[in-house]
Amino acid sequence: MGFALAFLEAGSVFGVVCVLIAMRPHLLLDGLGMPAVVAPALAISGCYLASSYFSELYPPRALRDGRTSARRTVHLLGLAVLLLGAGYALLSGAKLNAPWLLSAFLLVLGLVLPLRAVSQGMVARGTVQRVLILGTGPLARKIVEGIEVAATPHYSVVGMVHDGGNAESPPPPPAWSPALPTGGLEEMERLIEELCPDRLVVALNERRGRLPVWALLSSCASGLRVEDGVEFYERLTRKLAIESLSPSFLIFHRVLQKSALQLGVRRALSVAAAAVGLVLAAPLMAVVAVLVKLDSAGPVFFTQERVGFRGRIFRLIKFRTMRGDPPDDHEVWRRDDEPRLTRLGRQMRDTHLDELPQFFNVLKGDMDMVGPRPEMARNVQSMTEHIPYYGLRHTVRPGMTGWAQIKQGYALSQAEVTEKMRYDLYYIKHMSLWLDLRILLATGRIFLFGRRAAR
Known about the structure:
This protein is an alpha/beta fold and 455 residues long. Helix content is 55%, strand content 9%. It contains 17 helices and 9 strands.
């Protein structure tokens, strides 16, 4: 929805500006190297699209809040039109044409706001599918919780089928969801008939000898969609339920199989992006280096051993964010309330400015631009022992930013590291240039506005 709306809005802006300029020949600019009608139209539509993205006007939660969405749209469109007018004045030396700018603003607004209203209505009235869950264990609980916190309410849990007990002594409903209708396997057909679900999600943590194969086959034949719980959870949350994954899932879904061509192209693009990023960020990095030196005594850079591709140890480079000695080797988790954290260091961590020197790590081959964040070497052994499939993070190069980084942020406990692992394994499974681009754009938003503003 958001993707389509973005390009519809950009197309509307582009079309209106082209028509307005074509109707006023004296507004055409000379010497631009391309048709003067197209140049400002591209500029204003690109400016509007970029500012709308970075202001988060396209996620479902933004589309549901019609008043805030409309207010931000008016502000951003006004800014885009003013920038166009200012650019025209600078290039031509003419005065700003206020009536023309006002006409452009009102006409584009007349197209964009109805598009947003329609999108808001579609999100609000989106078809909510009724879900019956087979299972009451940890995976079932995660699915219910995922549906409850989803940004867009596509699903509603209408009941649960437990796989224990019997008709005479059924187990009680799960304590975490006591209000849902429940029944045993022998009552599944009755529940399907009474609750009229659109899909049946199989969320049994242990299926051997407990999966009602013929009942599920009968449900499929009757038109009910039957879906694997792990795959449903993955699509719902954009992460993997690692505690419920079987090795066969990882093997037969080709989670770890990447072609040499894909990896080669990805590596080449990472090197090119790091080289360009280093050149563009060099002035900013110089300013940050001076500020770090002035803020507190100590070196500008901080290096630390991290575990990279295939378990290789390398030294990660960052701007120093703390005063005094480096963290104690026995200190496993970083802390937001770390007393040695400098005021500048706190701001750098919030915007990830402290990670800019990692462009050098990318160029050296230690990292890629996008991937799971490299973990401290002293933590990896413990995490591998306690978190399922943790070692699979090292089957790809670590990244300056990653899916878990933009979704979860820093991890301050083993539970949060486990949550990040769910995102990391999702990224490894779906690794692509398109997903990398999404992650880089989201990282740019965090860099510009901070994590709190970007959420």
